[in-house]
């Protein structure tokens, strides 16, 4: 099963790459992560570290915001 959040991230990365006119290989080179990692991120698969996400998002001009879900008692 593919996580919806990962799919949203993948779609965002792909759209931003297109807008910037860079290839998956360019994104991998600029961010310092492997091409297979970039491909996995765009497909919504894998389990990247926070640091990997930060590097890739930095290149495409996005930032990561973490939210803690509150539970109701």
Task: Explain how this protein is built.
The protein is mostly helical and 73 residues long. The chain has helices spanning 4-20, 24-31, 35-43, 50-59. It starts with a helix and ends in a 14-residue tail after the last helix. The longest helix has 17 residues, at 4-20.
Q: How many β-strand stretches?
A: 0
Cα-based radius of gyration, to the nearest Å:
13 Å
The outline comes out as elongated
Structural class: mainly alpha
User: With helices defined by DSSP (H or I, 4 residues minimum), what is the helix count?
Assistant: 4
Portion of residues within helices: 55-70%
Average pLDDT value? 89
Question: How are the elements arranged and paired?
Answer:
Layout: H1 4-20, H2 24-31, H3 35-43, H4 50-59
Helix pairs in contact: 1-3, 2-3, 2-4
């Amino acid at each position: 099963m593919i996580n919806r959040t990962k799919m949203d991230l993948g779609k965002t990365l792909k759209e931003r790459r297109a807008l910037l006119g860079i290839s998956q290989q360019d994104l991998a080179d600029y961010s310092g992560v492997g091409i297979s990692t970039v491909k996995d991120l765009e497909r919504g698969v894998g389990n990247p570290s926070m640091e990997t996400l930060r590097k890739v998002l930095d290149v495409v001009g996005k930032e990561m915001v973490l939210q803690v879900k509150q539970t109701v008692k």
